[in-house]
Amino acid sequence: MSRTGRSCTGAIVFLGPPGAGKGTQARLVAGRLGIPHISTGDLFRENVQQRTPLGLAARSYMEKGELVPDELVNEMVRRRLGEPDCEQGFLLDGYPRTLQQAETLQEALREREGCGPPVVVNLGVSYTVIVQRLGGRRICPVCQRTYNLVSQPPLSDNVCDDDGAGLQQRPDDREEAIRERLAAYEARTAPLIEHYKAAGRFYEVDADRSPELIAEELFRVLSPRS
To answer: Per the CB 3.0–4.6 Å rule, which of 5, 102, 115, 150 could disulfide with 109?
Structure first.
């Protein structure tokens, strides 16, 4: 029996740069497998909105455009994994992003009965496709609906289908910002990818393709877990 008394059939981790489609694919896979999809972005927003001590601490970094320290991220994730819906497994999107976070995750898994190392999927995507996806993204400032000028355009140019508001481009979706985001991702995450490759249970998936083809391969790769 584990120290916590919780059981676990396994954990899945999705890695990939901005624009790889992690969130879209994570929701599809988690829904198919009947496990929760845990996004660090969602955790940040929930903790900030609920004004938890962790959320207030994280907000001070986010407002300055700084990375939230590993200690705060790790504690948010630890608490989320302690909730009942995670007992039979979970899919992590955006965590871990550093070796230190990976070590913390492994410690948490060791405390759960039946949990070995996570299955890790890296969604690889080319620079050209990333720029196309992120550079073409537009958001409605009223309802927050997201469009893509290439793959999911609005019915009328630059106008939200739902409320007629003019669509906007986020500053970090411009190409100069995209280059900076990718450089930061590579610097922090490249060692993590090598770590998980060496550990086994690691899969590379070509995310340059359509969401439907990516999902089909993911379901095939992860089907033994369903």
So the answer is: 115
Question: Would you please indicate which residues are annotated as catalytic (active-site) residues?
Answer: 22, 97, 137, 170, 181
pTM, two decimals, is 0.84
The 10s digit of each residue's pLDDT in 178-202 is: 998 899 888 888 889 999 999 888 9
Contact 29/12 with Cβ under 8 angstroms?
A: yes
Query: Could you give the number of structural domains in the chain?
Result: 1
Least confident of 5-14, 16-25, 121-130, 175-184: 5-14
Dist CA 2 CA 53 (whole Å): 29
> What CA–CA distance (Å, rounded) separates 34 from 36?
7
Rounded Cα gap, residues 224 and 218, in angstroms: 11
Residue-number span of the structural domain to which 37 is assigned: 11-127+190-217
The CATH number of residue 48's host domain is 3.40.50.300
* Residue 79 in tokens: 């608490």
**CA end-to-end span of the chain, whole Å?**
24
The strand pairing partners of 14, in sequence order, are 93, 121
Cα Rg of the chain, angstroms? 18
In a domain, 138, yes or no: no
